[in-house]
Amino acid sequence: MTVADAIRQAAGGLATVSDTARLDAEWLMAAALDVSRSSMLLTRMQDPAPQTFAAMVRRRMTGEPLAYVTGSQSFYGREFIVSPAVLIPRADSESVVEAALELLPEDARILDCGTGSGALLLTLLAERPDASGLGMDRSPDALAIARRNAEALGVAGRAELVEADWTQADWKAGFGRFDLVIANPPYVETTATLDDSVSRYEPHEALFAGPDGLGDYRVLIPQLPSLLSPGGAAVVEIGWQQAESVGALARECGADAQTFRDLAHRPRGLVLRFGVGKGAAKG
Questions:
Q1: Fewer beta carbons within 10 angstroms: which end of the chain, N or C?
Q2: C-alpha of 165 from chain center
């Protein structure tokens, strides 16, 4: 069977689990061939289909996310290695990168709280060759993925990746201060109903944060002032309905909180500045 025939056949089956069945089949085949999708479409369609393709299609048929099957996900124009040890980077989080880039001074030092795959921190380092950063995560498996991504993107020399847990005492000992802190903490309510592809496959410890989804914000936000250099700021991702509640928590800690939005124009995060007076959330 040729690559073209195998893609056509797989797309028919995948239509029962995916609204983008043909595209899924093409991405799976490109991964099986270890080439880019465009290269496959241009030069490989009449080649014999690789034996590994069928097994990848079966995994996708069970509802496993495409990114986990292929082992990679595009984010801010770059490919990131992913596995079930880390959340899949999503386009919504690119707004966090945009907000952070506007704030970075020259030779910035960045802290990424809950780095996961490293998508946020490593993207910023790739965009700003003068910057350096520290990414922390409580998951050794996630940090292993982040280190692979740092090497692949050529920023490993400027990215320190360490195991730490902001719910534990002295977790930030020795970290010093940073010009920018970024964080995409768990923010899903424990009773929330999620798509099966998320609830069955993505790491729950990176998703859920108590009955109201605010548990990690309550722990992390009060600690931010001690991590920031004078004039520094924090960029915190939120659930799209959490701007008011997280903004209120930040104001209680003396922060000015400004909301920024994602491409769908939904509230996606807050820029927090401390020591400038309590401010109402804006956006």
A1: N
A2: 18
